[in-house]
Specification:
The chain has helices at 8-11, 21-30, 144-151, 154-164, 175-180, 188-210, 215-227, 231-238, 247-250, 260-263, 265-277, 330-334, 385-393, 395-404, 416-419, 429-467, and strands spanning 43-45, 50-52, 55-56, 64-68, 85-88, 96-99, 105-108, 118-119, 127-130, 133-138, 182-184, 291-292, 307-310, 326-328, 346-349, 359-361, 369-371, 375-378, 406-408, 411-413. By secondary structure, it is an alpha+beta fold. The strands form six sheets. The protein has a five-stranded mixed β-sheet, with no helix packed on it. A four-stranded antiparallel β-sheet has the order 2-10-7-8, with helices on one face.
Length: 469
């Protein structure tokens, strides 16, 4: 149990009368100084540097935009945007709403956010950002890049995630609390000097990034080579937007489906190729039935809990990201013995337009967790689970998910009864191991680039830290 003493005056330091330990510990011990020092004369509040500026996007007719949320998968290791959703005036989530420009700095409002602090040096008129970002315009007396690097500092991020956040489930910290934080005053000439020193390090990061090959590209290349898949033919068929089928074709599936998505030529090609190479279906290697996870209510979360709740969001990057996962109460965990993960389980998202079909393999036996109702658990026997995981990530298998999912817009689903009938390669365990090792060898090489980039980022952080101390 955490105990602290506070007076009514202490509670009055927050206009909502917060009385939680994590908040008052920071206020009493650090007095809004995230970097440890405590000098009001040589410091300044962020609210005196950053002006909130939210510009609603004026969606033009007949124009598409690049919608960017706070999902970490939207950004690469160099903090640049690599993924987005295509949005328009008529088709965009309500949360995708803000335009930005080269004068802005963006920071996620979410606790534990993996999205970086963003700033831009190119035209951003094609982009629209979600309301999950706080958007600020720095004062001209501060170098935007220098300030952005201060905000990326891990010490500051830890304060946001540990002391200032509010709520359970999807937790956030408030903009007003963020703007109360104090940072050292740094002469603008010194700021510019540090930014100039950083410039060649940034160039090295971009050069390293250019040498990185995405894991999915490696997986697709190796599977294509091993199984002789014709990806050029597949890509060609995906560009055909007409279909010609008979009533008998409609009756070839139990739901009498007649959508283009289900009957398109590319999907037919993928299905025929995979079925020609194996007589096996996923159901033939199941240790137990594929099952959906467990629903949860806000009262079941426990920020001090020791077990996780694995949601779709926690596997969106093709792995279980436990640092972002919520934790649950012991009573909730004890009540769900049949909805828990185990080593080598594969968790698949069954819903959500941006996550459906994505999978993660549980590779840490120390993780105790319940998997969510919008995911399903695939537990295999007599089959290499890592090989299955890689196979499920291939473009060919993911296209099967695309053709089989049901529903409209963001309300699409795929069900265990469909997944269990999908084809899976019928090769020996030795052959599976050979393919797994080939993929791991290639991806391990890519991790070396990631490691070098991380070292360069730490070098930048040291320069910034030295400049403010």
């Amino acid at each position: 149990m955490k105990i602290f003493q506070a007076s009514f005056n202490d509670f009055a330091k927050d206009d909502e009368m917060r009385f939680d330990f994590k908040f008052h510990q920071f206020i009493n011990e650090r007095n809004w100084f995230p970097f440890g020092f405590n000098s009001f004369d040589s410091s300044i509040k962020l609210k005196d540097i950053l002006k909130p500026e939210y510009i609603l996007c004026k969606y033009d007719d007949d124009k598409t935009y690049k919608g960017v949320s706070t999902n970490r998968s939207n950004f690469d290791v160099a903090n640049e945007i690599i993924s987005f959703s295509v949005v328009s005036r008529d088709e965009h989530p309500g949360r995708i709403k803000y335009s930005v420009n080269q004068n802005h700095i963006l920071i996620s409002s979410l606790k534990g956010a993996k999205s970086p602090v963003l700033f831009f040096e190119t035209d951003m008129s094609e982009y629209v950002f979600s309301n999950g970002f706080y958007i600020f315009k720095p004062q001209k007396s501060w170098n935007k890049k220098f300030l952005a690097y201060i905000l990326r500092n891990e010490q500051l991020k830890e304060i946001l995630d540990t002391n200032l956040y509010r709520g359970i489930g999807i937790s956030t910290y408030k903009e007003k609390d963020f703007l109360k934080l104090r940072i050292p005053i740094v002469d603008v000439e010194k700021q510019n000097e540090v930014v100039n020193i950083i410039a060649p390090i940034e160039a090295e990061i971009k050069n390293l990034k250019s040498q990185i090959k995405p894991d999915l590209e490696i997986i697709n290349e190796i599977f294509t080579k091993e199984f002789g898949w014709d990806t050029a033919k597949f890509d060609e068929l995906k560009n055909i937007h007409l279909m010609n089928i008979t009533f008998i074709d409609f009756s070839n599936n139990i739901d009498n489906r007649f959508s283009f998505k289900f009957h398109n030529k590319a999907g037919e090609y993928v299905s025929n190729i995979l079925k020609s190479q194996t007589s096996k279906r996923i159901k033939d290697y199941l240790a137990e039935d594929i099952t959906l996870g467990k629903s949860i209510s806000p009262t079941d979360y426990d920020e001090n809990g020791e077990q996780y709740y694995v949601s779709m969001a926690d596997i969106k990057n093709w792995c279980f990201e436990e640092e972002e996962a919520k934790t649950v109460s012991q009573s909730y965990f004890d009540a769900t013995p049949n909805k828990r993960i185990a080593i080598n389980d594969i968790i698949m998202a069954r819903s959500g337009e941006g996550t459906i079909g994505k999978v993660a393999i549980i590779d840490n036996e120390e993780n105790e967790a319940v998997y969510a109702d919008f995911t399903m658990r695939i537990r295999l026997k007599d089959y290499n689970p890592i090989f299955a995981y890689y196979y499920f990530r291939t473009d060919f298998f993911q296209y099967l998910v695309y053709t089989h999912k049901k529903g409209l817009g963001n309300n699409t689903n795929i069900f265990p009864s469909q997944v269990r009938e999908l084809p899976i390669p019928e090769i020996s365990l030795a052959e599976q191991e050979k393919i797994v090792n080939a993929i791991k060898s290639e991806t391990d090489m890519q991790r070396e680039f990631d490691k070098k980039i991380k070292e360069k980022k730490e070098e930048i952080n040291r320069l910034i830290y030295d400049a403010i101390n």
